[in-house]
Amino acid sequence: xxxxxxxxxxxxxxxxxxxxxxxxxxxxxxxxxxxxxxxxxxxxxxxxxxxxxxxxxxxxxxxxxxxxxxxxxxxxxxxxxxxxxxxxxxxxxxxxxxxxxxxxxxxxxxxxxxxxxxxxxxxxxxxxxxxxxxxxxxxxxxxxxxxxxxxxxxxxxxxxxxxxxxxxxxxxxxxxxxxxxxxxxxxxxxxxxxxxxxxxxxxxxxxxxxxxxxxxxxxxxxxxxxxxxxxxxxxxxxxxxxxxxxxxxxxxxxxxxxxxxxxxxxxxxxxxxxxxxxxxxxxxxxxxxxxxxxxxxxxxxxxxxxxxxxxxxxxxxxxxxxxxxxxxxxxxxxxxxxxxxxxxxxxxxxxxxxxxxxxxxxxxxxxxxxxxxxxxxxxxxxxxxxxxxxxxxxxxxxxxxxxxxxxxxxxxxxxx
Length: 416
Prior knowledge:
This protein is of the alpha+beta class. Among the domains are: 156 residues, Beta Polymerase, domain 2 (2-Layer Sandwich), CATH 3.30.460; 65 residues, no CATH class; 45 residues, no CATH class. The chain has 23 helices and eleven strands. The strands form three sheets. Strands 3-4-5-2-1-8-9 form a seven-stranded mixed beta sheet. A two-stranded antiparallel sheet has the order 6-7. A two-stranded parallel sheet has the order 10-11. Helix 8 packs parallel to helix 10 and helix 15 packs antiparallel against helix 16. It is elongated and about 90 Å long. 38% of the residues are buried.
């Protein structure tokens, strides 16, 4: 038997004081009602790894929704209830706290959302994805801080292993394949040998997962510090082609992702930029297949389409003597993420300079005169006003006019 472990000191060291006090209070309330409350999942893992963790996942051996209501009332937080899964979420200040009834899960078919029913803590931990996420910490008075590790998660953390809990895990929910690789690369761990073989066996099960759930996993990957590590590994194991055969994880992608971080610093790159760089090698047809497969929302879908279309403009953008108005006409209307992706993907310094010039200066150029000014100069409301404003923008882009007086003079010439 392993030695008992108490993590109360780690909780006090690693978590904000207000969260610690909240867990102590809600644990005491649950105990007063004859129930046990536990901190479970990723927060326990991160405490053992001595990493920051702020999103808390609590499990109670009873009615989670009523306990969450008490929590929301006491904090003034916003309560969101998911009756089907016997869970609730409380948003409080910058914190997010999930409260779940201890439960077991069954799957009617691979890839389906689980059917849940109340269960024991052991059931609840066994339904989770990996041993390192299947540990709990007691929050009840008298037992506060005691680690509950039924499946060897602490030892796997020490050994740096990602291990599933049973051989049907990837079959039941193939999104765990993505999470296995994401955790492996985030922590610098390796897949347990049996887990690796089962993952390879069940890659085809990714076809059972809805596009929305695949997109969610992809978005989580793109929030990692170095998402290219995931894509390199996913390509190596043939996980990435299962989503779209044209997607590649390679050294080129790694370089482009690093460049994206540099140009976006101090903020992380937007999802659209990362996604456009990932999809850059795809043909137009493949882009449409990917958009449909993962049900991309319209703004992200437009970024991918724009990036694909911009590849046809690279030759024109490589001209060193482009007039500003011509450059504006080529790039106008494309999303900034698509433009930046095209710049990063291009090996041409001239293309890079032209896109940078458009993004930082030309796209903001507007005539000083407005439509109302043109009406005062005698123009009748209608399409003619838009035409004149566009011509003024062109003149201003190319340096033919520089101030309001010169714009008025030019308009009068046009109206003669």
